[in-house]
Specification:
67 residues, alpha/beta, three-stranded parallel sheet
Length: 67
């Protein structure tokens, strides 16, 4: 989904893929993101986000290039 609003882009989605290092995405309200998603799953291709914090919120987290 293309959207100017990152929260709307997450609504009903099965996964969110982070492809940029923009700080805007680092500062999202991830509890809100989780609640909007059909299945809270994040693929972080830039290793921008904190895996432990996201997992604690209930996300499935995959960081590209991370162990």
């Amino acid at each position: 989904v293309l959207s100017d609003d990152p929260y709307e882009a997450c609504r009903g989605s099965a996964a969110a893929v982070v492809l940029t290092e923009w700080d805007d995405f680092r500062r999202l309200d991830f509890a809100k993101v989780r609640d909007l998603m059909a299945r809270p799953s994040i693929v972080d291709a830039r290793n921008l986000l904190d895996p432990a914090a996201l997992r604690q919120l209930g996300f499935s987290y995959t960081g590209i290039g991370r162990p």
